[in-house]
Amino acid sequence: MKRAKDKYMINRTKYKDIKRYDHKQMEDFLTDVYKNGYADGKESVPGVELQDVEKALQDVKGIGPVVWNRIKERLAELFRKESSDEAGM
User: Fold this and answer.
1) Tens-place pLDDT, residues 21-64
2) Which has more confidence, 21 or 81?
3) Phi and psi (nearest 5°) for 7?
4) What is the end-to-end Cα distance of the chain in Å, rounded?
5) What is the largest CA-CA distance in the chain?
6) How far apart are CA 30 and CA 11, in angstroms?
7) By the 8 A CB rule, do 1 and 9 touch?
8) Rounded to the nearest 5°, which phi and psi values hold at 2?
9) For residue 25, what are the contacts with CB-CB under 8 A and spacing of at least 6?
10) Which residues, other chains included, contact 28 with Cβ-Cβ below 8 Å and sequence gap of 6+?
11) Residue 23 has what pLDDT?
């Protein structure tokens, strides 16, 4: 499939091929479409880095060293979980 103006275009030949796909071929084709969509969606959303979050929260009034350490631990857990979820995809 070729991409034009944020749309994937299917020509007539590809359309006819898709109509003739058996179950396995259709699964493979749809998996590829899903992966392309997932990659496009992931690229369109800006990621947040742990250091950026820590820097933003560090200057908040009322957060002392004890609370700050608990926040850092929790954020590190959260970001590790997200990284392992993405690796499994």
Assistant:
1) 999 999 999 999 899 888 888 888 777 777 777 788 877 888 88
2) 21
3) -130, 145
4) 23
5) 65
6) 17
7) yes
8) -105, 155
9) none
10) none
11) 96
